[in-house]
Amino acid sequence: MRCPYCASLEDRVVDSRLADGGAAVRRRRECLACGRRFTTYERADTGVPWVRKRSGAREPFDRSKIAAGITAATAGRVESPATVEEVARAVEAEALALGPEIPSEAIGRLVLEHLRILDPVAYLRFASVYKGFEDVADFEREVLELQKTTAPKRRPSSPGRS
Ligand SMILES: [Zn+2]
Known about the structure:
Number of strands: 6
Shape: globular
Largest sheet: 3 strands, antiparallel
Bound molecules: zinc ion
Number of helices: 5
Distance between the termini: 66 Å
Order of helices and strands: EEEEEHHEHHH
Structural class: alpha+beta
C-alpha cells in the first residue's frame, strides 16, 4: 500500500500480529523506497469508521482516545467522567454518520462543537491543541469568536436577580 511518507506503493511486511483482542491484524510495513516503517490494521468491514490523519495514515476510530482528549481539556472544569463519556459517545455517533473514513480534523471539529457548549475554557484548551495556536493573537481571536457565539447566554445579570 502507499507509503505515508513518500507515496511509494512498494513495501514489505516486517511484522504481523493480532490486535484489539483478535478483532484486527496489525502489520508493520517497511517502505522499499524510503525505508521508513508504518503500521496498518486490517479488520472486518463492519462499519467502524476509520480516521485519516494528516500524515495520510489511517487508524480505526477509537472512542477512548476521544474521551482522553476531552478529559484533558475539561480537567478541573467538568467533574463527571459520565459527561466526558457522553460527549465521546455523541462524537462517535456523529463520526459514524460522516462515513467510513473521516479526516482527523473533522473529528476535532466535532469535539470542539460539543466543548463549545459544555465549557468555554475546555473549548479553548482543546482548540489550542487542535488548531495548533501559535501565538496569543490566535487565542484572542478564538476568545472573541467564542464570546460572539455565546453572548446571548452570558448577558450581565438583570437587576431583579440577587
Ligand atoms: Zn516511503
